[in-house]
Specification:
The protein has 179 residues and is an alpha+beta fold. It is built from 5 helices and 8 strands, in the order αββββαβαβαββα. The chain is globular, with a radius of gyration of 20 Å.
Length: 179
């Protein structure tokens, strides 16, 4: 009696091996993307305009928030890294008074009912970019993408991919911007 498993056909075995190697190679990048800091934006360009309606039908204008740090997170409910990092946005907002730091979560391309069923009650505004117009004006290449706008209205920091926003490194970067 043979207790050894039947070998898989060569193409299937190669694909499995390639997936495993790709996963091992990407593991450090995924871990880094989910913790650690944000990248400085070269030249501190002015933040593009951002005026959208939130889930409570209030108009939120980024320009009216000048004088405080604003974290602008572009996300969608269908995006797994977006869903994973979303709770950390609320935890981050709790670490800072809203007059010093405001989190804005910009949902891209979804209707209010879908967004509300995911986001529910948050301690920060969830904005609706139904036609993706705001995302097109910002230097966003994929979701999630997050920018930190400094007190003068300039793009200071950026994160492409998921993050834990209450990570001590990110909190320290934001505290530095508040000085």
């Amino acid at each position: 009696m043979n207790f050894l498993p039947t070998p898989l056909p060569a193409p299937i075995e190669r694909r499995r091996a390639l997936r495993m190697l790709a996963g091992l190679a990407l593991a450090p990048l995924v871990a880094r993307a989910q913790s650690g800091g944000m990248t400085a934006v070269a030249g501190l360009p002015p933040a593009p305009p951002l005026t959208l309606i939130d889930l409570d039908d209030r108009k939120i204008d980024l320009a009216s928030l000048r004088g405080r740090i604003v974290l602008v997170n572009f996300w969608a409910t269908w995006c797994p890294p977006c869903r994973k990092e979303f709770p950390s946005l609320g935890r981050l907002q709790k670490l800072f008074p809203p007059a010093k730091l405001t989190v804005l979560a910009v949902n891209v391309g979804e209707d209010a009912d879908d967004v509300f069923s995911f986001a529910g009650a948050t301690n920060f505004p969830v904005l609706l970019d139904k036609d993706s117009g705001a995302m097109k004006r910002w230097p966003v290449k994929g979701l999630p993408t997050t920018y930190v706008v400094d007190k003068a209205g300039r793009l200071a920091l950026r994160a492409v991919g998921g993050r834990d926003f209450d990570d001590p490194v990110i909190v320290a970067q934001l505290k530095e911007l508040l000085k």
